[in-house]
Amino acid sequence: MEEAATFTELDREFGIPGIASVVEGNGGLPKVRITSPRAVGEMYLHGGHVTSWKPTGADEVLFVSSQSRWAEGQAIRGGVPVCFPWFANREGDPKAPAHGFVRTKAWQLESIAQAGDAVTVSMFTESDESTKKWWPADFRLVHRTTFGSELNLELVLTNTGTTSLRFEEALHAYYRVGQIEKARVCGLDGVHYLDKTEQNREKTQQGEIAITSETDRVYLNTGNAVELEDPAFHRRIRVAKENSRATVVWNPWVQKAQSMPDFGDDEWRQMICIETTNVADFAVSLEPGRQHTMKAVIRVAGL
Ligand code: BG6
Question: What is the number of other CB atoms lying within 10 angstroms of the CB of residue 56?
Fold first, then answer.
């Protein structure tokens, strides 16, 4: 495993003493550990995947399953998976990996930099033979994450080829909640959505979202921030975004949780996904040489 051999070299090249180090993470996978004045956090090279963010004075914000796999070729269950170049199952290609191929791939570290009291970690992945097996495109994808009193996630896709591209993308964030039955997602009142639990039937959101059964929805044409109210943890998490036109809200509830081998049977109570995306009709078209940036900005407030 080339990755595992290089923690020390990566740390020597990119580490910032007392602030950021590259260390061995779960399953022997390398991760960047941040301890800045404003936050602690973690990001794996595997999938360019953020698994922890704890702003100073708050508890951990992200959910990671106790049953997650931590291995090359497998997706981490929780944190912020990066989905690209398609979301969920690929249309017309049942063998293609769900949510694309970058979440199970080893990314490379580009830089770690202090930005005031915050720290920005950039990782990238590029097209190669393994990606071309699934998708013929030439691309470079950067995930730039700033760990501070806000968590700022930026996905930057460059079309490095000679033909135009069309792709879907998601920052598939899993949030920890105290008790899902009491949590509410606000800010999508009146928005149309596709209900994936009913063959994508189109519906309209009435008021706040309460989770009372399996929930798997693609909210359409969304630009505004949403808020996750979590009375059990006495906090509110605000998710703002740029250049994202769809928001996915997902909770597997009881049965689906039991059917997922990398997820605890009762963990549906402790999490919700609010995903910043461009999916379905909002897939992005990008001409050769052009760049597209999608951003999520996460903040925590008391209730
Ligand atoms: C959500 C999808 O984003 O991810 C759900 O809307 C899916 O349909 C869920 O079940 C988890 O996907 P996966 O591939 O990580 O099990």
Answer: 12
CB–CB of 108/45 below 8 Å? yes
Peptide bond preceding 85 in cis form (omega within 30 of 0): yes
For 269, the token pair is 């109570």
Which residue matches tokens 């994202």?
A: 244
User: Could you identify the atom of ligand 1 that is nearest to the CA of residue 77?
Assistant: 15
DSSP string, 50-96: EEEEEETTS---B-B-TT---STTS--SBSBPEEBSSSSSPTT-TTS
Q: Percentage helix, strand, coil, to 5, in the chain?
A: 15, 45, 40
Q: What is the pLDDT of residues 90-107, one digit of tens each?
A: 989 999 999 999 999 999
37 CA distance to ligand 1 middle (Å) = 34
Catalytic residue among 3, 172, 227, 267: 172
Report d(CA 75, CA 153) in Å as an integer: 19
32 φ, ψ to 5°?
-95, 130
- Cα–Cα distance measured from residue 97 to residue 173, given in angstroms and rounded to the nearest whole number: 19
Residue 128: which residues within 8 A CB-CB, separation 6 or more? none
CB 274 within 8 A of CB 239: yes
Cβ 80 vs Cβ 49: under 8 Å: yes
- Give the pTM: 0.97
Integer CA distances (angstroms), 289 to 173, 246, 252, 292, in order = 29, 25, 39, 10
Distance set, CA 94 to CA 39, 89, 90, 91, 280 (Å): 41, 7, 7, 7, 17
Nearest CA to ligand 1 atom 5: 216
Q: Mean pLDDT over all residues of the chain?
A: 96
| Residue 258 DSSP one-character state | H
- Find the catalytic residue in 150, 168, 267, 275: 275
Please give the distance of CA 101 from its chain centroid, rounded to a whole number: 14
pLDDT digits (tens, 9 = 90+) for 30-49: 999 999 999 999 999 999 99
